[in-house]
Amino acid sequence: MSEKKKELLTGEWSPEQWQSAWNIQVGRAYGCKACGTVIMVSKGGVGNLEPICCKQPMQPLGRSGAAEGEGTP
């Protein structure tokens, strides 16, 4: 049985998958849709980053400055 099928059946993640999912990456930017504030991660780490502004979650930004999934390709 392949690792992918095994993972789907057991719901278990490998240590590499956990590290990738919990890795806070330097240079990642987030923006507030309400006020336009933009923040960028300047120091990486491990954990769960959920930036909040104007009492709502900030959205990850793509390279163009638009929220991911928005704007022109």
Task: Write a short abstract of this structure.
The chain has helices at residues 3-10, 15-21, and strands at residues 23-24, 29-31, 38-40, 45-46, 52-53, 56-57, 59-60.
Largest sheet: 3 strands, antiparallel
> What class would the helix/strand composition place it in?
alpha+beta
Task: Quickly name the level 1 CATH class of the domain at 24-62.
Answer: Mainly Beta
Can you list the strand order of the major beta sheet? 3-2-7
Order of helices and strands: HHEEEEEEE
The radius of gyration over CA amounts to 16 Å
Shape: elongated
Second rung of CATH, namely the architecture of the domain at 24-62: Single Sheet
Helical amount: 10-25%
- Strand fraction: 15-25%
Query: Would you count the extended β strands for me?
Result: 7
Mean pLDDT: 78
CATH topology of the domain at 24-62: Rubrerythrin, domain 2
* CATH homologous superfamily placement of the domain at 24-62: Desulphoferrodoxin, N-terminal domain
Low-confidence stretches: 65-73
- Count, helices: 2
Distance between the termini: 38 Å
